[in-house]
Amino acid sequence: EKGGYDYFMLKEIAEQPKAVADTLLGRIGTDGRLTLDEVRIEDRVLRAVDKVVIVACGTAFHAGMIAKYAIEHWTRVPCEVELASEFRYRDPILDQQTLVIAISQSGETMDTLMALRHAREQGAKVLAICNTNGSTIPRESDAVLYTHAGPEVAVASTKAFLTQLVACYLVALYLGQVRGTKWGDEINEVIRQLADAPRQVQQVLGTMEPVRELARSLAGASSVLFLGRHVGYPVALEGALKLKELAYMHAEGFAAGELKHGPIALIEPGLPVVVVVPSPRGRSVLHDKIVSNIQEIRARGARTIVIAEEGDEAVAPYADHLIRIPVAPTLLQPLVSTVPLQVFACELATAKGHEVDQPRNLAKSVTVE
Ligand code: F6R
């Protein structure tokens, strides 16, 4: 049942191109327009939405953080993203014009379920992004967009995460389409690139041997830091979470702009720091900033592991290890930049002798608080 792989996690990482393709299937028309038939929230209601609030836990929360950048950029609707466990215990301001998006692989996460109940009580419409047909969260939501990742068995989420991202992009683009905002060449180009994502993910998977080798060489490290900016920041958080849960190592993700506000004090000679570099072609200011961040940490002795686009030569002189990813629009980059981090954590944990499918103390779905 592991399809020839030693672990479900390896199988699920390898299945990502298909999972992403399945989540896109039938949702992008030949004219580039989206049809999300399952989103049974009337266009009239979607046009009236004046705020989006995303609630989720763990890896799904990281997908939500990335969705915020996409939703605000493509639709100009303000978007908040909050941990479901925080949201449900405060007094959030919601009304009929709020669209709440609950993201959950299992559809059974207690905190996310409670958050959506709380939202509906206040009249907000809830759209679930979920991987498990007929689970509680979609049943209790106004509408659901299923991710078609197939069953995810390994505790650490991989293919569910990539498909959550795809679903979030589709929702963001659909909102833009319905509301008529920002519809133009940029959006058409993004849709074209999104359709190409399965091929790009496959391409990344084909270049992972050096990442595995690097991961094995770091099995003795006591800590690994992850830095990113913009959508690379949640990717950094996700890379750190994977390493914590699988390798039981101290790992932390930071927004690179926060370095000088504290984290740079952690940098010491030999400390591995993974940096997710935004495309130099997109918002180039982001790229310039991160190149100086890499220089800063390297000057303090960090061992820099740089994830950067093909053809990005500016980072090369400062990278102790350079991991190449395909060229993608800024907002879609997480679909390719996350993959090396999954492989890295899985391989490092395996090198330490850990059972990656069933990390200690963790359960696949957290149905208690
Ligand atoms: C991490 C991981 C968890 C889940 C979180 C939410 O690899 O799998 O952080 O993402 O427990 O679970 P779902 O998506 O089922 O609500």
UniProtKB/TrEMBL annotation:
Q: What is its main location?
A: cytoplasm
Per UniProt, the keywords (alphabetical) are: Aminotransferase, Cytoplasm, Glutamine amidotransferase, Repeat, Transferase
Q: Which GO terms describe its molecular function?
A: carbohydrate derivative binding; glutamine-fructose-6-phosphate transaminase (isomerizing) activity
> What's the top EC group for this one?
transferase
GO CC terms on record? cytosol
GO terms for biological process?
Answer: carbohydrate metabolic process; fructose 6-phosphate metabolic process; protein N-linked glycosylation; UDP-N-acetylglucosamine metabolic process
Question: What catalytic reaction does the record list?
Answer: D-fructose 6-phosphate + L-glutamine = D-glucosamine 6-phosphate + L-glutamate
What Enzyme Commission number does this protein have?
A: 2.6.1.16
Q: Keyword Cell inner membrane: yes or no?
A: no
Cellular compartment(s): Cytoplasm
The residues responsible for catalysis, as annotated, are: K364 (for fru-6p isomerization activity)
Is-annotated flag, keyword Transferase? yes
Domain SIS, by residue range, is 41-181, 214-359
- What's its job? Catalyzes the first step in hexosamine metabolism, converting fructose-6P into glucosamine-6P using glutamine as a nitrogen source.
Q: How does it assemble?
A: Homodimer.
What name does UniProt use for this protein?
Glutamine--fructose-6-phosphate aminotransferase [isomerizing]
Species the sequence originates in: Peterkaempfera bronchialis
**Full-sequence portion shown in this chain:** 247 to 615 of 615
